[in-house]
Description:
Elements: H1 2-15, E1 30-36, H2 41-53, E2 58-61, H3 77-85, E3 89-92, H4 105-122, E4 129-131, H5 139-147, E5 152-157, E6 171-175, H6 181-189, E7 197-201, H7 216-228, E8 232-234, H8 245-251
The chain binds zinc ion.
Residues 36-37, 93, 97, 133 line the site of zinc ion.
Keywords: Signal
Protein name: Peptidoglycan/xylan/chitin deacetylase (PgdA/CDA1 family)
Organism: Arenibacter algicola
Amino acid sequence: xxxxxxxxxxxxxxLFGHAQILKKEIPDKLLVLTFDDAPASQYSVVxxxxxxxxxxxxxxxxxxxxxYKDSTLYMNWRQxxxxxxxxFEVANHTHTHANVSKLSQSQFNAELxxxxxxxxxxxxxxxxxxxxxxxxxxxxxxxxxxxxSYRFARAGGSRAYDPLTDHPFLIPxxxxxxxxxxxxxxxxxxxxxxxxxxxxxxxxxxxxxPWVNTPRKLFKEYLQYLSDHDFKVVSLRDLLAYIDxxxxxxxxxxxxxxxxxx
Length: 262
Ligand SMILES: [Zn+2]
């Protein structure tokens, strides 16, 4: 008996030297919903629908130039605070939707700290997670994020997230638009065998950026499909229950040659 346990332990070490990255097994049908850029429809359309379905989500907010003050186009901070109060995650997408691959460390920190300070002054849960505006990133930015103790950073790449091989600052995702329903349905099917599907959405609808528009009807279809098929739909920070990001950062070498843009 003891011998069997020892053999199993040794086998486990051999096969899963990285096993401690996972705090618990990744279930099939685990899906992360993320919403970028703070368009007004995320408050008026998305949040109420998510509540109806009991789904979690992450909202990567910024003050999108030049029209962020126009409340017909973008959420205001009162509405962003309401998302936090509703239990959704508010996370960092920089102050000005900056291409962070072109910034110095001090410029990068200023972009992040504007959002952090805004959250602090309004009593919003401190942001721990980041999404790269326009999928701009490089090796320096990964170091900057680590120094600021961020946990996850979401990129693109149109492939599933494997917590044992993808660095926590290079989380891949698929982006929805009005015309890629079959691609997104296939993406949902990839949430199995230890992999997690992460979706990037923008406005529902998106008035300012029609190329990333998701019509309300299509969004509702996705939510209904996820509900009918018993998906667990969560925010990015909910993955901390499954993934030890410190361990992952120690053991996984960031691979910047993988597809990282949508
Ligand atoms: Zn964005």
